[in-house]
Write the structure tokens for this entry.
Amino acid sequence: MTSTEHRPGVDVPDSRGRTGLDRVGRDLTGNPDVVVRDVEVTSDGWHVLRRTTYDYRRRSGRWVTEHRETYDRGNGATILLYDIERRTVLLTRQFRFPVYVNGHPDGMFIETAAGLLDDDDPETAIRREASEELGVELGELQHLFDVYMSPGSVTERVHFYAAPFTPADRIGAGGGLAEDGEDIEVLELPFDDALAMTADGRIADAKTIMLLQWAALGGPFAGQGRTSTR
């Protein structure tokens, strides 16, 4: 038996039944200036941390060997729900420990509804998340763009959507799934207030800021003057 045998997630199933986690990236051929040499699984918890060694040809023509860690948590989807008539948007607030430990005052983060795709396609996934988190049954969706949110280390690509809603579409309380440890507050905010919150830091979530800016610049509230909420 060698030291490389019986590694969870590689040779034997990990806690989620996965094997072959060290194969990801080895067969990439899209860039002739990159040759993957080795992939090491350094953490196989709920998501996967890998350390990849590859040769890279710089613009000068010189080949160098580089090492990069990538965090693979799968891809996700997010959505901005808006009510044009009442000029509001539907957001969530929940505790996020990673932001709390990195300077956020209390970790209570205001965001658009979002979630991982798991085994679903993006549209199916975001309909599921809107129902679970916001209690809204979605009608027609508008796909906006797909974005790599942290390309220096995280592989995740997020699919962005928007959709109108009315009070009649709110068929449940939302709040997320208790069995998944979710405790989500649903917030319906005046659009102008939400946009102002991106400027003063009360909304500090990248995907939410992007969607609110889209709504103001080219979306449902583009070209409309600010409505006083006082």
In short: The chain is about 15% helix and 35% strand. Residues 43 and 49 are 5 Å apart (CA to CA). The first helix runs from residue 97 to 100. Helices lie at 97-100, 122-134, 191-200, 206-217.
